[in-house]
Amino acid sequence: ALRQELVELDKKYFIHPTSSLQDQQANGPAIIFDKAEGVHVWDLNGKKYLEGMASLWNVNIGYGRKELAEVAKEQLEKCGYVSSFTGFSNEPAIRLAAKVAEMTPGDLNGVFFTSGGSESNDSAYKLVRHYWKVKGKPEKTKIVARKRAYHGVASGSTSATGIESFHDFTTSLAPGFVHVDPDSPEAFRKLIEEEGADTIAAFLTEPIQGAGGVNLPKEGYLQEIRKICDENDILFIADEVINGFGRTGKMFACEHYDIVPDVLLLAKGISSGYVQLGAVVLREKLHKELIELSPGVLMHGFTYSGHPTACAVGLKNIEIMENENMVENSRVMGDLLAEKLTELQKETDIVGEVRHLGLLGAVEIVKNQETGERFAEKVTPKIVAAARERGLILRNVVYWEKDTIVYSPPLCMTEEDVNEFASILKEAVLEVQKSL
Ligand code: PLP
């Protein structure tokens, strides 16, 4: 009865993000979540699922950590909110800024807080453009992003996104965004020649593309891009909204490639999704120059930049991640899970490439395992549905030419969870394979 009541109210009032409005009207929500613990979530009917996506690639430390609830309660009781605008500050925001500065690669050390990834992206575009403006180069405005990239849905970040369906949806696209071939540094060089380095503010990239299908960079690609940026006075922005905080088996994905971005974008794993939080981190030189050259008011800031409760939760989240070696666990369990999923290439007829870094991975579904040819119609939605029926939540990439299942489970995953994940996916693939 509770479920039915909620379904009716949901259908009537709740406009869901990135969902089919018509499907919502016709069917209501498929699952109403009720509680969660570790890597598992339960729906209102008491059915248990392994959350193979950590919800939206974000619940990195796993569900049900009471310590986070406790620090949130403590902070809400002590001082639920204060602003960090002109002259004001608060201890959780100060300590989290210092912590993020200490743990991020190289000399990244100036931290601007946001409430999520889209805000981190749009803030970064404004900050780097402002930087060039105060450096006397106001015409350096273009942001170069990669095809297949996902950067969010605010006006700037949806424009930076390189997945066509997001552009087709809207007329809100902002000027000044250019997309390049996602694998070729040469394409970036050519673009610089055509457009002129003096018109380009920054190159923007997820080290490993997430929503675009978990695409690992080609060997040497990111290092070469870093070099081209240096040669041409173009800033390098790394969007680690998904990649960051242990997802790839290192604290930050840039560490796999020995690069230090000029600007690092964070969200999701910074609070493991328990509260809304994100950050833009600037390298020392950039941070210093902004202070020196921009003596007026920084005319950019959100009500919730440096929210004390969000920052207190973020700090505790990072403490748990470090104390419980979750980054190392992400690497070890990530390798084990990928190994088991690779076995599906032999155990089924339709599993193709399996790729991963840590607990960020993808499984391709193919018609022909030799050639990689895919089916004319996408098969992955069926597999995702069959897996869900059996208690494993996954996601298929709906907007790219490949037929790809992506995964991104909590980093607290155990070997037992890995086995459960792999065996459910195997059953789901075999069931769907029979029906083809
Ligand atoms: N950047 C990347 C790489 C993301 O994956 C996402 C969200 O999935 C965003 C930015 C946008 O973050 P948010 O949804 O918190 O605004």
Overview of the structural elements:
This protein folds into 2 domains: 31-61 and 325-435, Aspartate Aminotransferase, domain 1 (Alpha-Beta Complex), CATH 3.90.1150.10; 66-323, Aspartate Aminotransferase, domain 2. Helix content is 42%, strand content 16%. It is built from 15 helices and 15 strands. The chain has helices spanning 2-13, 21-27, 54-57, 66-79, 91-103, 117-134, 155-160, 164-169, 185-195, 221-232, 284-293, 308-323, 326-347, 380-389, 415-435, and strands spanning 33-37, 40-43, 48-51, 108-114, 142-146, 177-180, 200-205, 235-239, 263-266, 278-283, 351-357, 360-365, 392-393, 395-396, 404-407. Strand 11 (351-357) and strand 12 form a beta hairpin. Helix 9 (185-195) packs parallel to helix 10. The chain is globular and about 65 Å long. The chain starts with a helix and ends with a helix. The mean pLDDT is 97. Bound molecules: pyridoxal-5'-phosphate.
